[in-house]
Amino acid sequence: VFFLTLSQKHKKSPELFYEQGSVLFEIGAEKNCIKTLRKSAHYFKQATVMQPSHVEAWHGWGCALALIGRKEDLLDAKEKMEKAVALAPHVPELHWDTALIYLNLSDHSGEIDDIFNALSHFAKCEDKISYFEFWNSYGNGYIRLSEQLDDIRPVLKAVSCFKQAIALSLNNADGWLGLARSLQKLYRYSHENDHYNQACDCFAAAIQLLPQRREIALERIAFIIETALRTKETSKLRVAIDKCEQASSSPHLLGYYSVALTFLGAWTGRVELLHEAEEKINRALENDSDSDDPLLIFLSGQSFFALAEYHRDLDLYYQAVEEFQASLSLDRSQLACWVWMGHTYSAVYELTDDVTYLERALHFYSKSLQIKNDPHLYFEIASLLIELGDNSHTTEPIQQAISYLEYLFQTYKAISFDHPEWFYHYGIALNKLGDFNEESTLLHKALEAFINVLMFNPAHPKIHHRIGIVYSHLGDILTDSDYLYRSLHHFKLASKSQEEDEALLIDWGLALLCLGEEGYREAEAKFMQAALLGSQEVYYHLACLYSLQGAFDLSITYLQKSHASKNLPPIDEIMDDEWLDSLRLTPQFQEFLALLK
User: Fold this and answer.
1) Residues whose CB falls within 8 Å of the CB of residue 290, separated by 6 or more in sequence, listed in order
2) Beta strands in 192-316, from DSSP E residues, in sequence order
């Protein structure tokens, strides 16, 4: 009867087809009926055929196709909406709906251009729309962009959008959740405690408004644990445990509960927490209806890692690796699992000093980067490459480390000064490369890096020690005693916080050796102090000192000690060391060399 009334009123006019399409669109949208939506699209099409300038018909046609939702329909919907926008560019709702279609299309296409187009349409109407739903969708657009771009700016834009949405409606649960996730992303860039606290508060607001969505509580718990493990704060682990006690029980909750208890028990030495954690993870695995749950297996791997740290047990580290591998075999897209594989092999390397595990750690961190660019991963890889260069006595890994760190400075300029450790390791890499190649320009760049650290974190551990090393290398290369005296000044400052540090005493002694005879006596005292503290690396430096003083028997004695303790440098380095020039002319040295060969 309704359509008959319309047909009598409009007699097959564009308005008739538009009205029929509108009614069918409302029914199809309410009942999610694809067939009805297709009928509405047909009527909208008839309206545009009869009147190509009918903006509302183009708009309705695009919306109907968008609700149908297949990729080809979304592509068609995009075309219709763009025609509507071209006919009425000042209608904000057209831009809003067009932006939503581009966002939906990006899910199918994976193209970043679709996200940029969506944001462009959002921007054209942002000063004309005051609905919180608009700002929610605008914020989601920037969140999508942040997942595609290695840049903090989309995250900041998303935070701004969700704040605007919440300002328009405090009961906007999706706004609170979007803001929580945006601040969570921002914290991963900045590592600022304010961003962490704000994210947790927003999660709490979202949970209060959406208590039925238990996954939000799990998301908050996972974030708290992740942050606690990064900062090694027991207080945050206790907060996570408290949230676990308040949340509804599930296998995943028990898994997170176990991880928090295990790490807290390992860090505080409370064995009863380790036993409780084991009971929780076993119960989680027993209650899990899906025996191949990759998340639960991953959480089990984290618990094994914590136990391995507590017991310093290689077998437990290997069990953690097995769990991570099992989880990855089910879902290879898990970024956290790849990262923890690298983290575990790095820990095994520290325990064994076997470079094979260092190379495996680098492999798994690199795999993680293929899934997502993350400044933390670039830094971890750079740190391990410096270690690899030291271990292999080659400069190529150190050059790679420098390129990774320079990429961090260029890409994350906005937050680089919040990360003194980036500059610290950059300085270490430049110093090592500059010393190896005897390039004073690299050493001066290393000094600049360390001064940046000193500016933003004067209490950074070992910073004066590192500055002293650079000055001593500059003094040695340029034969400039002024640099050497500067190095001695910084070593003295370092000794106030690094009492009984063997490495500091050795570096201090080497700087004194570079001063010539006036420094020999004090250098011997520093080296002997390091030896008394248990250093075996110092034996070779004592051999050099006694060679310079002409005490060849003592020099050979310490070379033999260095060889026996497996701290002797390669033969070619010994043959090129100018501090051993006098010793190499003696029969004792020839005998020692014959023994080595």
Assistant:
1) none
2) none
For the purposes of burial, counting CB atoms within 10 Å of the CB of 254, is it exposed (0-12), middle (13-18) or buried (19 or more)?
buried
375-392 helix and 420-437 helix, angle to the nearest 10 degrees: 30
In terms of Cα–Cα distance, which of 513, 509, 482 is closest to 495?
509
* Average pLDDT in the chain: 92
**pLDDT for position 29:** 85
The 8-class DSSP code of residue 568 comes to P
- Record the pTM: 0.84
CA distance 447 to 466: 9
Cα distance between residue 475 and residue 447, in whole Å:
13
Distance CA 442, CA 401 (A): 14
Q: Which one-letter DSSP state was computed for residue 458?
A: T
Give the whole-number percent of the chain exceeding pLDDT 70: 97
Give pLDDT < 50 ranges for the chain.
1-2, 4, 6, 8, 10
Contacts 24+ apart (CB under 8 A), 224-229: 224/200, 225/256, 225/259, 225/260, 225/263, 227/187, 227/196, 228/260, 228/263, 229/263
SS3 290: coil
User: Shortest CA distance to 562 belongs to which of 578, 581, 547, 550?
Assistant: 547
Name the maximum alpha-carbon separation found in the chain. 120
What is the C-alpha to C-alpha distance for residues 23 and 591, in angstroms, rounded to an integer? 102
Convert the pLDDT of each residue in 453-497 to its tens digit.
Answer: 999 888 888 999 999 999 999 999 999 999 999 999 999 999 999
Long-range contacts of 277-282 (CB under 8 A, 24+ apart): 277/303, 278/303, 280/254, 280/255, 281/254, 281/255
Each residue of 180-206: b (16+ CB within 10 Å) or e? bbbbbbbbbbbbeeebbebbbebbbbb
Q: Please enumerate, as own/partner, the contacts of 406-410 that have beta carbons within 8 Å and a separation of 24 or more.
A: 407/378, 408/375, 408/378, 408/379, 408/382
Burial class (CB in 10 A: 0-12, 13-18, 19+), 112: middle
